[in-house]
Design brief:
With about 250 residues, the chain is α/β, with parallel strands linked by helices. It has ten helices and eight strands. It has a four-stranded parallel β-sheet. The chain has a four-stranded parallel β-sheet with strand order 4-5-6-7. Strand 5, helix 6 and strand 6 form a beta-alpha-beta unit. Helix 2 runs parallel beside helix 3, helix 2 crosses helix 10 and helix 4 packs parallel to helix 5. The longest helix has 26 residues. The N terminus and C terminus are likely disordered.
């Protein structure tokens, strides 16, 4: 007998991770200048990648975030490499849609959560994943995911089937399907998508070409998932924070 799932409550608030789930791919930008970051964002969006993480490795990161929000209101732009409570607050004030840290500490996690924004806290080992989830973060950034690859992500999904995992590092257009097949909610892509060397050299066409490759790979993943289960969404864990709403963005 088939069990019918109850319909989604239209009055329920959208999931804080809905925007990330919809974006699928988040470009991790480490630009040498604010102008370089803004040009890189434009090139990536032209190629179809609308999830943007402006890291604090970029000078004046909060100002860049605010400017990206103004120029590209449909993009999902957040702050990455958040290392201090002050950086979390500044990114939130600038209009960041989400916050990402490379690791997890109780003080930093609390400060990030206090902003009310979706928080992705970095972890690699099972113990670190447990620490991050116990602190209440919305998703775990598995970093550097290149150390274990999709097989390691799949192994983490065994003991943590309900924890939204966002692998970052080692993600390419060529292996994107493997990461989603292993259970990623979304993926973060740095050098393979937003090469720091290409940004420094002003090779914007190259960024657009790479973004198109990532967007096409993501579209194939979603088409394959839609054919398999009729959902139209990329494979990944259920979001325990609320119903997945592909039409909602987690923005302030």
């Amino acid at each position: 007998m088939t069990t019918q799932q109850p319909p989604a409550d239209p009055a329920a608030p959208p999931s804080p991770l809905a925007g990330l789930r919809r974006a699928g791919v988040v470009a991790v930008l480490r630009a040498p200048t604010p102008d370089g970051a803004l040009a890189a964002v434009a090139a990536l969006i032209e190629g179809g990648v609308t999830g943007i993480e402006i890291t604090y490795s970029t000078p004046d990161a909060p100002a860049v975030i605010a400017e990206v929000r103004a120029r590209h209101p449909r993009a999902l732009v957040g702050a990455g490499t958040v290392l201090t409570p002050a950086q979390a607050a500044a990114a939130a004030d600038a209009g960041s849609a989400f916050l990402v840290s490379p690791g997890t500490t109780p003080e930093l996690a609390a400060a990030m959560l206090d902003t009310g924004l979706p928080v992705l806290s970095g972890a690699l080992t099972p113990s670190e994943v447990m620490t991050a989830t116990a602190l209440g973060v919305h998703a775990v950034k598995v970093f550097p995911a290149s150390l274990g690859g999709p097989g390691y992500l799949r192994a983490l999904r065994g003991p943590f089937p309900d924890v939204p995992l966002v692998p970052t590092g080692g993600v390419s257009a060529g292996n994107l399907a493997e990461w989603f097949g292993a259970g990623a909610l979304a993926v973060g892509a740095g050098g393979e998508l937003a090469s720091a060397a290409h940004i420094a050299a002003g090779r914007w066409d190259s960024l657009t070409v790479r973004a198109r490759a990532f967007a096409a790979a993501l579209a194939k993943v979603r088409a394959a998932t839609s054919d398999a289960d009729g959902s139209g969404a990329a494979a990944g864990p259920a979001d325990p924070a609320g119903p997945a709403d592909p039409g909602a963005e987690a923005v302030r």
